[in-house]
Design goal:
9 strands, mainly beta, Coagulation Factor XIII, Chain A, domain 1, three-stranded antiparallel sheet, six-stranded mixed sheet, globular, 35% strand, Putative secreted chitin-binding protein
Length: 195
């Protein structure tokens, strides 16, 4: 085999191997319906968000919620201090999407699809305090919607149909995208108002 061909094949194998090893770091996404705090920062609907405004898809932290995962008070930022403005309750003034109990379609925009265990959706308990950072004690720790993927890769724009529980007033939905072949998950917080 000519030397140039051998070098080209070696280079191609090296590039392919580096792409395979880099793949887990490429999985990212955010909720677009209801819009997450991260997306509202990206859109400029909320100011003083820090660098999350350029990386709404990057709220990645340890998986295993609710038994493990990010610490209480850091759930919206996935335990990553770079995204800490997402955990700031801002006195309960984050823009809230108007919703009502019943059928609802949740959507995510993924900037890189990844092998997925599940998407899970949690909601705050009645009487929670929207002026405090989100904790496990403020959430119903049984997801009201769980969509299992069994390691499959979802499309880049993915929707899940579910039913919003009967609630009144302001609440928060914590969406968790569990990655199948890494130790991480993506966390997105969406403020909603049931009226």
């Amino acid at each position: 085999m000519p030397r140039k061909s051998t070098l080209a094949i070696a280079a191609a194998i090296g590039v392919g191997a580096s792409l395979l090893t880099a793949a887990p770091a490429l999985a990212h996404g955010y909720t677009s319906n209801p819009p997450s705090r991260a997306l509202l920062c990206k859109q400029g609907a909320v100011q003083n968000c820090g660098p999350i405004q350029w990386e709404p898809q990057s709220t990645e932290g340890p998986k295993g919620f609710p038994q493990s995962g990010p610490a209480d008070g850091t759930l919206c930022a996935a335990g990553d201090s770079r995204w800490a403005p997402l955990d700031d309750p801002r006195g309960g003034t984050w823009p809230a999407t108007k919703v009502s109990s019943g059928p609802y379609t949740f959507t995510w925009h993924l900037t890189a699809a990844h092998a997925t265990t599940s998407f899970r959706y949690f909601i705050t308990r009645d009487g929670w305090n929207p002026a405090q950072p989100l904790t496990r004690a403020q959430l119903d720790l049984t997801p009201f919607l769980q969509v299992n993927y069994g390691g499959q890769r979802p499309p880049y724009d993915v929707s899940h149909s579910g039913t919003l529980p009967a609630k009144h007033g302001r609440h928060m939905i914590l969406a968790v995208w569990d990655i199948a072949d890494t130790g991480n998950a993506f966390y997105q917080c969406s403020d909603v108002d049931f009226g």
